[in-house]
Write a structure and sequence with these properties.
Blueprint lengths: L3 E5 L3 H12 L3 E6 L2 H8 L10 H11 L2 E5 L1 H5 L4 E4 L14 H10 L8 E4 L7 H9 L5 E4 L9 H6 L4 E4 L3 H9 L8 E4 L1 H32 L3 H9 L20 H14 L5 H24 L8 E5 L14 H11 L3 E5 L10 E3 L3 H5 L4 E4 L11 H7 L4 E4 L6 H6 L3 E3 L5
Parallel strand pairs: 1-2, 1-4, 2-3, 4-5, 5-6, 7-8, 9-10, 9-12, 10-11, 12-13, 13-14
Bound molecules: nicotinamide-adenine-dinucleotide (NAD).
The site of nicotinamide-adenine-dinucleotide has 27 residues, from helix 1, strand 2 and helix 5.
Length: about 425
């Protein structure tokens, strides 16, 4: 049965949620506070790079099942469900800042129809369901936790084909109603209490970050002992208890979620009396990894970065997105610039100017005249570059492959000194 759904916040999560629910046949109104964004969305213009999203928005707009409005109250006044998809950035003390969630809840509280259900899709610390309930000051409204696990770059696919749907509620009837929204999506459904649902989201992100930090630490060992981390990962990954996923060495994890969510979980644990030293180690390894990549680039430049031109391939925190939030590439570039380097960069989804970076329009232009070229985001197009052409453009044939993406032998054959991660 079709439901009326208000989605508050049209970022990566909210826009995907709204478009996918309308695709599933629900009647969706999405709200944002950004008037320009709302206007553009109503014209079918998608402000982010996300495969398949434009088609779903276009279909929803045309079918009249998807609209965009300014302000949360406007969307929520006639809904069965109000989905909160607003930011939960990191506060100064490492905890999650709930001010956007509370503000959105206060905005919709006076207009929510009787017995509507408010659903938290933002990533929020344990206890936030109660925080929202308090901000609403409405006894007739149930608040349910329904964390989101989509990955940027494949958000639509992940929303419609999730590994699981998690619903946390004290009110079983409300949980069943939220579950009914996902009818037609073949995924295991986990119905639990709000604290467990909220913990599942943080534990999932912390575990994924742990896997990446683990493989980056193993890569450091590989470099020290002369092993090749790619072969090591293959060797351990065939063990079904370990698997291959998320064991890709690189410049460290970033993006809009892992950095803030790992710190928030450390803080949640700390507040509850548990010192999550293991997760603190995971964060430290990640910070060290940025430094390790900078050191590689500095070594490739002959020991000093003062006045050195570095060509960078890739700016986003991962491929298939335009998201620059907490991108390891940008953090590494900041460090290079601080050591005197001049950075010219290319990314397929970034053309706007960025402070201190000469953003160029193709990978060859980014490599032109560079004394070191560093690949920092795993965009597929970098695999297929014309190696000889790059060799003819650079000032020195020094390559740092921060994602172990390139065909090492082809670059070595063209005269490049190749440094990967965890392999020489
Ligand atoms: N991005 C991801 O990959 C991802 C995945 C899973 C979960 N999450 C979580 O989902 C939440 C949202 O993340 P995001 O990446 O979509 O954020 P985002 O910054 O891309 O989008 C948030 C949107 O909310 C809007 N907004 C803020 N206050 C509002 C209000 N009162 N009314 C209406 N709109 C408002 C902002 O203008 C913005 O467009 C966060 O808690 C995040 O941790 C993100």
């Amino acid at each position: 049965m079709a439901s009326k759904i208000a989605v508050i916040g049209t970022g990566y999560v909210g826009l995907t949620t709204g478009a996918c629910f309308s695709h599933l046949g629900h009647d969706v109104v999405c709200a944002d506070i950004d008037a320009d964004k709302v206007e553009r969305l109503n014209r079918g213009e998608i402000p982010i790079v996300e495969a398949g999203l434009d088609k779903l928005v276009e279909d929803g707009l045309r079918a009249g099942r998807l609209r965009f409005v300014l302000g949360a109250a406007e969307a929520a006044r006639d809904c069965d469900f109000a989905y909160l998809c607003v930011p939960t950035p990191q506060a100064e003390d490492g905890s999650a800042d709930l001010s956007y969630i509370e503000a959105a809840a206060r905005e919709i509280a006076p207009v929510l129809p009787a017995e509507a259900i408010v659903v938290n899709k933002s990533t929020v610390p344990v206890g936030s369901t109660k925080v929202v309930q308090r901000a609403l000051e409405r006894d007739d409204i149930s608040v349910v936790s329904n964390p989101e696990f989509l990955r940027e770059g494949s958000a639509v696919h992940d929303f419609l084909n999730p590994d699981r749907v998690v619903i946390g509620a004290d009110d079983q009837a409300a949980a069943i109603k939220v579950a009914s929204l996902y009818l037609g999506i073949p995924a295991p459904l986990i119905v639990t209490d709000p604290a467990s649902a909220e913990t599942i989201k943080y534990a999932a992100n912390a575990f994924l970050a742990t896997k990446i930090s683990f493989v980056n630490a193993v890569a450091a060992v590989c470099e020290a002992v002369g092993a090749d981390v790619n072969d090591v990962v293959l060797g351990i990954g065939y063990d079904k208890r370990i698997g291959q996923d998320f064991l890709k060495p690189g410049p460290g994890w970033g993006g809009s979620c892992f950095p803030k969510d790992t710190k928030a979980l450390v803080r949640i644990a700390e507040d509850a009396g548990y010192h999550f030293d293991m997760l603190k180690g995971v964060i430290t390894v990640n910070e060290q990894q940025l430094e390790r990549v900078v050191e590689k680039i500095q070594r490739a430049a002959g020991g000093s970065l003062e006045g050195v031109v570095v060509g960078v391939w890739g700016l986003t925190f991962k491929a298939r997105t335009d998201d620059l939030r907490d991108s390891p590439s940008l953090k590494i570039i900041d460090k290079l610039i601080a050591r005197g380097a001049r950075v010219q960069a290319y990314d397929p989804t970034v053309s706007r100017p960025l402070p201190g970076i000469d953003v160029r329009s193709d990978p060859y232009a980014a490599a032109e005249g560079a004394s070191v070229v560093a690949l920092l985001t795993e965009w597929d197009e970098f695999r297929w570059l014309d190696v000889e052409k790059v060799a003819g453009l650079v000032a020195a044939r020094q390559l740092v492959d921060g994602r172990n993406l390139l065909d090492r032998s082809a670059w070595v054959r063209a005269g490049f000194v190749y440094q990967g991660i965890g392999r020489s």
